[in-house]
Amino acid sequence: MARKVIIDCDPGIDDAIALTMALFDPRLEVLAVTATAGTVDADQATTNVQGLIQQLDPPKYPRIGIASPCEGASVINDIVLHGADGLAGCNYQPSDRQHRHLSEKIISELLRQHPNQVSLICLGPLTNVARAFQREPGLESLVDRLVISGGAVACPGNISPVAEMNMYFDPVAARSVIESATTKSLLPLDVTDQVEFSIELIENLPSKQTRAGQLLHQLLLCAFRSYVQNLGRETIPLYDPVALLGFLEPELFTWEDMAVDVETRGELTRGQTVSDRRQHREWSFNAEVARTIDATAAVNQVVRGLRFAGQCT
């Protein structure tokens, strides 16, 4: 039986690639894709989610959640790596949102409709999940699993020396969700950055004649070009597809129960993922954290998922 999921994301090239995998994976029933601000602003995130789903045209359309601005969010500009629209110049046009609902409302409705059956796969900042939990106390007890792409436990950050982008963007929300009474799996940069994709990935993509292939070629060619030009790096990470594997293929990872928190106010440490690893630990375990990954197997699984999406489109 397919597992019910909500995908919360801020597309973003790697979000779009993870979404392409998830929408056609027979192991998943994607009930909703909820947009959140992060890589792009709230309006652009919503436009990107709508555009991606329309272009991919999956056999079953998920509900779409509208992102709303996040007060106190950090100003982040990822245009250099993702393109002006966040999606390598796909330039989707806004569609009618008259009958759409806010992301946090859709999350709440679906968790109550399917108690203990829906997992949240969070690929962007945790703004929507925090809002849903705050507006309905006790809602977190209805979540099956909460999978979080983000954090940097024992490695440098990717947006500051110590912070990963999703935690940095809205650290108050991140802290609130991390502290919630849910079963959480954290996929930090420590493992997602271990999986490197070479330009050979382009050769293994679906044909450009398919809907998925057309999208993937545009996104990934842009990603490889941007990483070479701006970072001098010939391989690219795909954080969110690897995080999705944490839900689909958990045996590819080693996991460790950890006590983690997120810094919300530090002038230099905003969004830092802090773990209590002292010998005489005072904090309680509150998440299972991915610590290592079979990188070769992960690359193969991502390619397999993308090729299957091509077969379906």
TrEMBL record:
The family database entries (PANTHER family) matched by this protein are listed as: INOSINE-URIDINE PREFERRING NUCLEOSIDE HYDROLASE, URIDINE NUCLEOSIDASE
Q: Give the E.C. number(s).
A: 3.2.-.-
Instruction: Identify the keywords attached in UniProt to this record, alphabetized.
Output: Glycosidase, Hydrolase
Q: Which residues form the Inosine/uridine-preferring nucleoside hydrolase domain?
A: 5-297
UniProt KW S-adenosyl-L-methionine keyword: no
**Coiled coil residues, start to end:** none
- Gene Ontology annotations of biological process type: purine nucleoside catabolic process
* Protein name from the UniProt record: Pyrimidine-specific ribonucleoside hydrolase RihA
PROSITE patterns xrefs: IUNH
* Keyword Hydrolase carried by entry: yes
Q: One MF term in GO for this entry?
A: uridine nucleosidase activity
Q: Name one GO cellular component term.
A: cytosol
Note the Pfam families from the entry.
IU_nuc_hydro
